[in-house]
Amino acid sequence: MEEWPQFILMVDSDLDPAAFRARLAEIWPDAESTGGRTLILPDQVMEIFVNDEFDATRVNDPDVGRRYFKYEIQVSPLDLDATVETQASVARELRARLESADFRVAVVADFEGSTDRD
């Protein structure tokens, strides 16, 4: 049985948590907010956390900086039969939207190589 293709978006931002969540709501106006840290997209659930390992002095390290980005967004499919290919495509789309809003983003997943740009 294939693992459930959940992935994490590490996001670098100077925004405080409330402003960051408000910005995400602007980026995804169709998302349903359950209040707090969860946004529900049509086929995904996004849970937003402040990264416990956030370290502003290390985010620019080219080798490990993404580990220290301020926010961690866990993205899970609502469809339990979602494929890795589908989730890789979703990860690329979500990353592109965040980057277009001037956030630095890294995808962390078992299928991470599938999210690289051509």
Characterization of this structure:
This protein is of the alpha+beta class and 118 residues long. Helices cover 24% and strands 25% of the residues. The protein is built from two helices and six strands. It has helices at residues 17-27, 84-100, and strands at 7-12, 32-33, 38-40, 44-50, 71-77, 104-108. The chain has a six-stranded antiparallel beta sheet with strand order 2-3-4-5-1-6, with helices on one face. A hairpin with a 3-residue loop joins strand 3 (38-40) and strand 4.
Keyword list:
six-stranded antiparallel sheet, alpha+beta, 2 helices, 118 residues, globular
Strand content: 25-35%
Question: Cα-atom Rg, whole angstroms?
Answer: 14 Å
Q: Would you tell me the overall average pLDDT?
A: 88
Total strands: the figure is 6
Secondary-structure element series: EHEEEEHE
Q: Would you spell out the secondary-structure blueprint of this structure?
A:
Layout: E1 7-12, H1 17-27, E2 32-33, E3 38-40, E4 44-50, E5 71-77, H2 84-100, E6 104-108
Antiparallel strand pairs: 1-5, 1-6, 2-3, 3-4, 4-5
